[in-house]
Structure formats: structure tokens, C-alpha cells
Amino acid sequence: MTPTSPSTVPLTIATVGVHVLDIHVVGIEAIPQNSDGALVESIGFSAAGTAGGTALVLARLGAAVRTHGAIGADSIGRSLTALLDAEGVDTRGLVPKAGVQTSSSVIPVRPNGDRPAWHCIGANAQFVLDDLDPGALDGLDHLHLGGPEFLGGPVAAELLGRARDRGITTSADLLSGGDPGLLEWIGDALPHIDYLMPNDEQTRGLTGSDDLADGARALVDRGVGCVALTRGADGALVVTGDDTVAVPAYSVDVVDTTGCGDAFSAGFITGRLRGLGLADSAELGCAVAAHVTQGIGTAANSYDLDAIETFRRAHAAD
């Protein structure tokens, strides 16, 4: 497929929900025994989370991004905020919560790119709609809710419904692993989501279907406008009430898969808002994810929308 270039009209997007500071430890062969130590290749920080990581990538792709969520009044929160500020994200919507730490993960990155994690939920569990500034939805083209399960279905539905009543398109991505109980927990929000972007395991868990297309259609039947799900090395699958589109992943040397889902979400959203079709938007999402996998963390490598489009055109010509 020949890539279609997206429109360059400026976009204003808000991300709401989960913000995490990731600490990447690269070169982990095994956890040392007892109190022994081991040398690693590198240790670094990156802004992450289904709202925070997506905000970072959206900003790199040219959107004006405002992000909203809860952090702790701590050094982790200050570091996370500084990383997002450096990417041009408006972080005034990050609300410090007293007596709780900022959410953080320690991610040991194995030589094959696998990355198990130790995670502290922290302040993400304390974010409520009252934390949003009254003007949070003003002037938006799009609202992305990262982690609707942290708000619960009725509250997430209220937020997303407010946005759609203003003509703002919406999307959501999950942080938790999927299961039927989670689907019921967020069920009220589903009819207010234009684009739901789970991964393959979440889709299977939510719906109980081993067939990803059938699972995605079950979510569409629950009211979601479009399901754009990631399939790891197999790329992405996009399902609506009328279409099913499969897009392969790009072949690159994988260093770290952390943040790939957030990168795909940002690329897919950018494509749709800039007028691309489902397949081209999914290709754009996969291209952004491919860039992120070649480095450490969501902020890996230097790229913008022009670089991603150049990458897509080069691979289309191969």
C-alpha cells in the first residue's frame, strides 16, 4: 500500500488518566542472588503511561497536547513532569496528591527486548473528575482517556460523553490486563469511545475469544465505534461495524518494546484526525511503534511526523 500523507492542520489533543515514570535497566540477564550485585548496560528514565506516554508521542507528531492526571508531591512526580515539559506537553493538568507517591515502574530489559516490570500504582488510583480544570475540554479536537478502568465505567462515560457532546472525538487505551470482569467494569464507557486501542491479550481476556477479529467485533457490538488492536510482531488489526483491516508490523531490530502501545495509539489517532483511512492510520501507528522499539522507552530515538512519513515511504518502496 502506498502511504497517504496526513494533513498538517494543527491539532489540539488532551490526554487524561495514567501517568507513570519508567525506570529502565538495560542488559538484565538474571536477578542477582541474595545481596549480590551485577553490572548492566544502562539505567534511564522515561515518561510513560497510557495518558503520559501517549501525550509525549502525540506532541512529537505535531499536536498541541494538554495532559491531565494525578502525581505525587515527590521527586518522581517532578522528574515525570520535567520529561513531559521538555517534549512541549502542557502539564498544568497534573495534580499533586499529598501522601502518595507518583506511579512508577522499574523495567529490567532483557537482551531479546522482553521487559517484565515492577509497578507501583501510586497516585493514579486517586485521580477523579473533580481534578480536571473546568476548561479542560475547551478548544479540543480529540480526547484520549488512558486507563478508563481507573475511573470506572460510569465516571469514564461521563467524561467521554461530555467530550462527544461538544463534537470532540474520543479514544481510550487500557493499562490493566483484560478479563470479562474488567469489560463489565468499563462497560458504560464503551458507547462513548470512538477508538478503543487494546492489545491482543487484552482483547482475548475481555471477550473470551481466541479469534481477535471476533473479539474486536464483540467490543464494537458493545458500542465502541472502532477497535484498533495491536498484535505485537504481527502488526495491528482494525475492526469497525463495516470493515476489518489487518496491517503488518515493520521489520526492525527490536531493542525494547516498552511504550509501543502508546506509540501506536498516538500514531493511529494522528492519522485519523488528519484525514487518513483506517489502514493508513494503522500503518502510521505501526511506524511510530517501530521507531520506539529501536530504543529504550517511549521517548526513544528522535522523530517527528515527517520522519515517520519518510520511514513509511521507504518501506513501501521496498
TrEMBL record:
Transferase found in the keyword field: yes
Protein keywords: Kinase, Transferase
Domain Carbohydrate kinase PfkB: 35-300
Gene Ontology MF term list: kinase activity
GO CC entries: cytosol
Transmembrane listed as a keyword: no
One Pfam short name: PfkB
InterPro entries: PfkB_dom, Ribokinase-like
Protein name: Sugar kinase, ribokinase family protein
The species this protein was found in: Gordonia terrae C-6
